[in-house]
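thought: fold this chain, then report.
action: predict
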Amino acid sequence: MTQILKLIVSFLMFLVVLFFITTILSITTQYPIWFSVIFSLACALLVGWSTWKLVSGEKMRVGVAVTSGALMLGGLCFIIGFLGPMAFAKDTSQGPFIGIFITGPLGMIMGAIGGYLYASREK
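observation:
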């Protein structure tokens, strides 16, 4: 049962970060699609792997914990700020900007701090 839970949580975090990075890159940059997809997949694979380690209770290095924490919490906050206003107020056109400019960056900062605190307490 715990293996299934690890798999589900890791896969969900993989999807969250994949959506987060792909959306941010497609909105804010002019990179080719193939670059955005490869970079998004690399970030999502890192987060999926580190989520698996986090749920398993294994130790992580500080750099991996900071990076994956920033991507995890940044992605979750981005989705809440990006899709939340669309769900509650369907007639507003500025709703997604909350996720892009406020909740996404704040989530990344808080996630990086949380990842550092998590990795420093493991030692």
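thought: worth noting. The chain has one domain: 2-122.
final: tokens above.
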